[in-house]
Amino acid sequence: MDQIKKRMEALRVEADESSSKAEEYKAKVKALEAETTQKEQEITSLTHKNQVLESEVEKLEGSVKTYKDEAAGGAAAGTQAESMQRKIQVLEDEAEESDRQIRELNEKLRQTDVKSGHYERKVQALEQSRDQWETKYEEMAQKYEATKKELDDFVKEIGNI
Q1: pLDDT of residue 79
Q2: What's the alpha-carbon Rg for the chain, to the nearest Å?
Q3: Measured between alpha carbons, how far is 82 from 87 in angstroms, rounded to an integer?
Q4: Cα(56)–Cα(63) distance, rounded to whole angstroms?
Q5: Where is the signal peptide (predicted)?
Q6: What are phi and psi of 109, to 5 degrees?
Q7: pLDDT tens digits, residue range 22-55?
Q8: What are the CA-CA distances from residue 44 to residues 39, 54, 94, 154 (Å)?
Q9: What is the DSSP string of the chain?
Q10: What's this model's pTM, rounded to 2 decimal places?
């Protein structure tokens, strides 16, 4: 009997240990279930966040496409601006060349005006000289006529003698 009591005692201790282990395992199962529930909630929350982020990514991709399109338009505008800058440079060069030609023409005009003034003075001097020569010619023509008349008169007088 002693053996049976020992055996019973051993079985009770074993049953107590098993019971305490079972409770310990139940507590672990509850903790794991709670942890699983928490993890499932986290998964649900992360899934929702993922969906929100995917939606945000789609919006951002749309924005990126829009910005790329605008950048392409901007590049075209940049190309057009460069073309316009080249045209402006060409026009500025042409304007500078025109200014240079105008300065040259103004200098030539000034020189022509100076020459014109010089020639006008020469013309005036020549006209005065011409007028003096005409006056002298007329005087000489009168003297010639007078002398011719005298000569004719003298020839008549000599012819009458």
Answers
A1: 85
A2: 66
A3: 9
A4: 10
A5: none
A6: -60, -45
A7: 888 888 888 888 888 888 888 888 889 889 988 9
A8: 8, 15, 73, 157
A9: -HHHHHHHHHHHHHHHHHHHHHHHHHHHHHHHHHHHHHHHHHHHHHHHHHHHHHHHHHHHHHHHHHHHHHHHHHHHHHHHHHHHHHHHHHHHHHHHHHHHHHHHHHHHHHHHHHHHHHHHHHHHHHHHHHHHHHHHHHHHHHHHHHHHHHHHHHHHHHHH-
A10: 0.40
**Torsion angle (degrees, nearest 10) of CA 69, 73, 76, 80:** 180
Distance in angstroms (rounded) separating the CA atoms of residues 69 and 63? 10
What's the half-sphere exposure (Cβ side, CA atoms, 13 Å) at 143? 6
Structure tokens at 148: 């011719």
CA distance 142 to 134: 12
